[in-house]
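User: Can you predict the 3D structure for this chain?
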Amino acid sequence: MKNQKANSLFHHHSSTAASAKKTSGLVLLTALLLVGGGILNAQATKSYAQLKAEHPGWIQAPGRLMHPDCVHVVPSGAQIEVGSDSKPSVDVKMNGELFAHYDPCPEQSIDTRHLGSQGGQSPNPSGYGDGWIEASQWELSLGSSDNIDLLQGFWHVPNPPAESGALVYLFNGISPTGAQWILQPVVQWGDNGSFGGDYYSVASWFVGPGNFAVVSTPQAANPSDYIFGDVQQTGVSGVGGQQTLTYFVDGYNETSGQPTPLYVTTPAGLHWVWAYAGVLEAYNVTSCSQFPGSGLNHFSQTNVAHGYPRVKYLTPEGFYGAQYDYFGSGGPQCHFSVSVSGNGSKSGSTSLLKY
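Assistant: Here is the predicted structure, written as structure tokens:
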């Protein structure tokens, strides 16, 4: 029944997607990566605590520490279009009408996903755990004009942590080559500097390199709520390397019936090949009791498709567990492990993340 619902959602959202527009994405992407690389190298030797102290009031978005002017909370259902500026401007539309325009943010964000080298043993003077910790992931081999056009899966909101103080993100999603951008429906525990606290919330995020993040209005969630994480392509415009794609991303709360949708027109030149069935990301972790109390999370019925406008499910699936060196493994080393079982277009795979 869940797969029937997913298919009906695909056809419904395809008919209501916002129109994509052409952008000079290759220039944009090259400029952002060059600038971002310099900032990354300069920041790589600093601990997360030092970076936070040097940037008071900044927001910890998924994967990036950002100036408040760079993070845009928009109404659920908004249509997001990224401009072709070297530092992207953002148009937000509702029902096809301009709702808000955001000029390029002047402050460069800080990559908090890759500051520690994956698998490395660099020291973390702060003693905290910060960044991506573990993931069930898969880099697909797709032709240059072929992209992931659908990733869907389910997970439960876990029990609250026994101890407060940390910011925890749990999500699925997709990224292009280089993984600098990400579309992700996210379950959050804790305060990220913009919203949140000692409770769970759900929101859909589009986070890019440099200085760019858009998030739907967060919705409160309760432990045991059942979340349907849905990312799917709904439109395409342009030809060759100038194609822009429109995606629908939603963390739908099956228990409360509350959606958190965004329609996002991505910059041109991005090749969406990274699929994440489930990811654990956290900040300011000093104790294993600051992770969700259940100690594990099942990301189940994960399905991946390509070949837009046709839906071609990929089977067998190639998800595998990856553990990240979150800021030099400075945080507590808890019961981290990722296991993947099952695959196929009907039942999908299940990824078990333990912490």
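The chain is about 10% helix and 45% strand. The longest strand covers residues 272-285.
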